[in-house]
Amino acid sequence: MLDGDEKMSAVPIIRRRLRSRTGKGGTPALITSGQVLAFLAIVGVLLSFITASEVYAFISKGLPSPDTIAEQEVSQTSKIFDRHGRLLYEFFDSNEGRRTSVSLDEISPYLIQATIATEDANFYENPGFNLRGILRATWNNITNQELSQGGSSITQQLVKNVLIPEEERALPLFSRKIKETLMALSITREYSKEQILEWYLNQINYGNLSYGIQAAAESYFNKDAKDLTLAESAMLAGLPQAPSRYSPLVSPQMAVERQHSVLDLMAKRGYITEEQAREAKKEELRYGPAKHLAITAPHFVMYVRDILEQRYGARTLYRGGLQITTSLDLDLQELAEATIEEQRSLLARYDANNASLVAIDPRTGEILAMVGSADYFDSDIDGQVNNATAEHQPGSAFKPFTYLTSFMKGYTPATVLLDTPTTFPDGINGPYRPQNVDKTFSGPVAIRDALARSMNIPAVKTIQYTGVDSVIDIAHKMGITTLNRQNWYGLSLTLGGGEVKLIDMTFAYAVFASNGEMRGAPVPEEEKMPGTRNLEPVPFLKIEKPDGEVLYEFSGPDTEQVIPAQLSYLITDILSDNNARAPLFGANSPLLIPGRPAAVKTGSTDDWRDTWTVGYTPQLAAGVWVGNTNNEPMNNVLSVRTAAPIWHNFMVEALKDTPPEPFSRPEGIKEALVCVSSGLLATPDCPRARREVFSEERMPTGRHSPAAVVQAPPATPTAPTTEVGVAGAISNGTNTQVPAGPSNEAPPGAGANRVRVPAVVGMAEGQAKAILAQAGLDNSPFVNYQGRDQVPVAVLNTVCQGCVLSTTPGAGQIVPPGTVVHMAVRKE
């Protein structure tokens, strides 16, 4: 038995034992003239059975150089690991099986002993062929009139498996046997026995798609070749003679019998004692699951496979033995998979059967998790389709790009837009009349409230102001790789009317998390498209060849400031404002992560086919898509009930051990107290004021006046608008994120003995009443509901149903506090 220091020098020990039995000295056995003569005599016998055509073919083909075996390309398995070195999958040529080459000192001494005892007992003494074995095989083949028994040495087997053409290996030709023997003789003269044995143990077929002892050790026992026990080594050493016949996974009883034979041979050759053999025969072997056939994080693995094939070629991937360390965090990956699995029964209530999640570190751009479907192996949901990279309509999750573009053209979070029924001419798409998700209208609203509450009409008005192409340009700069059809997209793009990828959306939101700085890996020059991103999400940390040569190493992210930091921060401030979104989602919705700043946006398509939630903290960005892979609609459900709970649960658990971190406020951000209804600096006449944030160059300068209707910054709209109600956008305001607690709104000016009547025409009745009450005016008993029989249709159609047609006194008039204001409201 080998243990202690003996295991450190297994090969020399093996050779000493062999020499002690044969009486040899300290040098390898020489190929003597007698052995050569004996070999030639055998060849003479063999040649008597060879036809003339076979002799001609043999001579004409010649023999390859011994160096051919050293130069032979060996197909090796490529392995993909997560960022902590945990195996995800192995890629190999299915025609050549799995293979990982190792040196002789990385192989268990027991395996080496078992192989020599079984395959070539006098390996270290013979000249490359087994003289006694050939004589025995020749006699048997002559008497049986066929070549049915081998007698090949380890060196001959190596020659057969590496240098003999595959089509000849199974043919009973004496010419092939002569080739094997002559080449084995030549190789033995040129190379050491250790080198020949190492080549052999890395080439031989052990079954179970495993070529070479390292692949076999992993395949059968989930361990390295150096860690094989005596019993395991004897089992594997018995396989090469007939891998299928003696496979312990296919024929357990025959495999055990073969193992026992190997142990007996080892004892007979003096490698182990009889007692060791008996104990090894009693050992119960435990075969691990076939990890090389299993796949972890399958959608991510296939995602990186496609990239590797494109950049390095399929041959390098499947035969090159690459060691690929990816950016994936298997702990977060398993959390993402479990989070989706926990929600599947809930999704089924809404006729949704599929979900996808992507997580990216916004500080580096590294992909930390990618779940492409609820179950990769479920064909009923087309589970192998990767919805992280498939194209889906994002719904309102696209709106931040629209509002960001408007900020670049002069709007601010305080800019006021009218949320009233509006028909938009939309080029070739015809008139477009969007609706809000709750089918109501809010009248004048600040962009902060419009984005936080996901109002549709203000978003369409904003993209009409900015221009569709400008929004697409910004989306491309931030990482969106789709939306490339010329003259195809209309105003509905802002509501998700163009298809995007979840991984792109998550990467783009990570740019918001980094104050407009894109962080990632450079896009290869040959893959760049004009006007699109220069950096991309990071899937790899290191790619190495088997010899240790590094093909790629991620040493840290490249960075590019793709949008102004101040404007990016404004979007983050709005998306993290739980107070602003509470009127629609509630104060404790799944969009809130208690005790931690988080910016998030939902999205739902109006045909109920796609629901999204994408959000981020400074440390983690995550996006979730929910729907059906076959594009069947869900049951009238919004993302707050489907994608948002998955996003919330994943983020809470993923960040539970990470201290909360505030969003970094860049230089050039200022605050001002503004009037919500106008976006201008608050005055004592302001019915409702709040603190708002601005980029330094967009600070409001005008002061609020109830009689004033301030136009938004000038711009040329993409098409004229038919505005129902008061026309125009009323401008400019902002609010910093404030945790749940006391309101940061300022009350109207105290002690004033005169007030101006606010402009409420076009507003919903309830909102108008609230604004009048805040101004200190009385309107509760005085509402006149008017319809077609009382008001001309042309006038009636200027406001929405339930909205204010007029007030008496009118807007801007100065009246004493408590004055009664009569309202006319459209009733139908």
Provide structural commentary.
- By secondary structure, the protein is α+β, with helices and mostly antiparallel strands.
- It has 27 helices and 26 strands.
- The strands form nine sheets. Strands 2-1-3-13-14 form a five-stranded mixed sheet. It has a five-stranded antiparallel sheet with strand order 5-4-18-17-16, with helices on both faces. Strands 12-11-15 form a three-stranded antiparallel sheet.
- Helix 3 (52-61) runs parallel beside helix 9 (174-190) and helix 18 crosses helix 23 (565-575).
- It is elongated.
- Residues 1-31, 49-53, 55-60, 145-150 and 708-752 have low confidence and may be disordered.
Short summary:
With 828 residues, the protein is an alpha+beta fold. It is built from 27 helices and 26 strands.
Largest sheet: 5 strands, mixed
| Class from helix and strand fractions | alpha+beta
Taking pLDDT < 50 over at least 5 consecutive residues as the criterion, the unreliable ranges are 1-31, 49-53, 55-60, 145-150, 708-752
**Helical segment tally?**
27
Share of residues in helices: 25-40%
**Order of strands across the main sheet:** 2-1-3-13-14
The dominant shape is: elongated
Instruction: Give the amount of beta strand, in percent.
Output: 5-15%
